[in-house]
Every structure is written in C-alpha cells, then in structure tokens.
Amino acid sequence: MKQSKFIFTFIFMVSTLLCTNHNIFGQCKAKSIMKSCKPNVPKPYKYDAYVVTEFTFDDKEKKQEVVFTAFRGMKYRLIFCSSGFEEPVKMNIYDKSNKVKKGRNKVYDNDQGVDNNFWSFQPPKPGNYYIEYEVPKSLDGKVKTGCVVLLIGYAGKEELAE
Question: 1 lies in a domain?
C-alpha cells in the first residue's frame, strides 16, 4: 500500500513539473516572431539569422548578456523584436562585457527605439558588442517568461554602393 502511494505521488509530482515547465517556457514563439519582424530588415540589408533570448519574470530583477560580433567590411542592422511582454525590459549595448569594470562604453540604449516591442541598432564599427537586457520583476507577481528575438541583417560594400 505504501509503495503504490509513493509511486502515485512520484508520478503526480513529475507530471505537475512537466506541465508547469511547458507552460512557463512555452510562451516564446521565436519562429513566428522572426517571420513577423523579418520585413523590418531594410534594403539593402539581407536577413542572415536570428538569436533568441528568453527571460523569466519573477520576484527578482536580473541582467542577461548576449554577444554579437560585427566583421570588417560588413554593415549590420540588428532588429530586436519582443514577444509582447508587459514588463519594461531595458536594453543597452556596450563595447565591452559586464565583466569589465573600467572603460566600458554604452553605444546604444532602448530609449532610441520605436517602442518596447521593436528596436533597431547599427554597429558603428567592427568588433564585439555586448547586448545587456535588464529584466525587471514580474508586474503582477506571477512567474512568467518572455523573449526577445534578435534579427541580424548584413550588407557588404557592394550592396551599400547600389
């Protein structure tokens, strides 16, 4: 009797965990966000790829950093599209990682964007750029997720000359 109660309890806990995990992380539909934002990559830039950053909104503020590398001889247009979360995520782009304490310069912040669901950034020169997302606490106190999909558009000297 005790063994069957233990097995039932174990199965119930695993099922609950799987359902909860599916609900928490099932809210970012990256491919559909990418498709709806792809027309925002302006000509002469060509769509290249996308990068997904998922956030968990809970009872703590946090920062997440993503690296983007711009190569010499290419121009890039980075398009940031969100999954439509209500929380005001701030985005800053730096020339150095948050692990570097001195000489870190901000080259972009989302105050330069259109709204909280769409931002665009053109790197000023080749090199690594560190995109830092400041994720606030959940507005309603419930744990939930959201995401930002970064679309990368590029153009070579030939495309820009046209």
Answer: no
